[in-house]
Amino acid sequence: MEKLTIEQAQKVACANAAARSHLINAITELRLMKKEIYKINPNTGKYLMPFANNGLLSMRELDDEDLNRYLRAMDEKTWKMILSQLGIEEMLNSADQEKLMTAIEHGAFGRLAAQNIMDFMAKMDRREAIGLQHLAQECFRRFSPDYRNLAPIQKIMILYSGFNHELSFSEYRQAKWAVLEKVLLYLDKKALPKRFEDHIYNQMEAIRESGKDDFVCPYFKAKFYPKTQTVRITFERMDLVNMINKIGRNA
């Protein structure tokens, strides 16, 4: 996870305060403009909405309640921008991501003051450790040959990976491969790939689509069996797999 210094937090807080001030002033000036324009013909019954076509701002939505809504939305989006820059979302499972988004949307982290930003960083540090644990537990659940009896993930395994009657490793069709990649990389203290095509599961999918049936990466070797929609995995980093087993079995 990326870190912010107190100086960076102060700069973000100052920029946010300035943006809030500009937004409040802009709404105030728009109210005055609207008032002056309506003096031209108070009985027309028509409304001026120069931004409405893009859905950005209706000139009828300028009262205090609307202003507060705009300010809350700006703070929410700013917290999410900070979160995105930290990179913690990538290593959370879907349930943890949803909880974090809900907390931000409900204003759980307060205004964007420098101290609140640093407190947010400390909380994300703790969430990172918990998130990795949850991710490893999910990986164990998906790859254990007998999860209910806590059977460990083996060095060599035959796994089903079918979708719509064909073998697939797509994140959207067989999410377990994306979970496995995340856990292996984070336990190995490596960053997730930035490019779509560099993800392990996308490389596996590209190999499958090319008609080949062998795949090798630093963490495992794979043999594809399209007819049965299965894959034989031989793990190369059993030290990492054993860590997953330990976390999963102690959940």
Describe the model.
The chain has helices at 6-38, 64-86, 94-105, 114-143, 176-187, 200-209, 238-249; strands at residues 156-160, 162-163, 166-167, 214-216, 220-225, 230-235. The strands form 2 sheets. It has a 4-stranded antiparallel β-sheet, with helices on one face. The longest helix has 33 residues, at 6-38. With 251 residues, the chain is an alpha+beta fold. The model has no long low-confidence stretch (mean pLDDT 88). It has 2 domains: 6-136, no CATH class; 146-249, no CATH class. Strand 2 (162-163) and strand 3 form a beta hairpin. Helix content is 53%, strand content 10%. It is built from 7 helices and 6 strands, in the order ααααβββααβββα.
Radius of gyration: 25 Å
Count of DSSP-assigned helices: 7
The ordered string of helix (H) and strand (E) elements is HHHHEEEHHEEEH
Alpha-carbon distance between the two ends = 24 Å
How many β strands by DSSP? 6
Strand content: 5-15%
Mean pLDDT: 88
Report the sheet with the most strands, covering strand number, pairing sense and barrel closure. Answer: 4 strands, antiparallel
Structural class: alpha+beta
Oligomer: single chain
Helix amount: 40-55%
Indicate the low-confidence ranges by residue numbers: none
Number of domains: 2
Strand order of the largest sheet: 1-6-5-4
Characterize the overall form: elongated
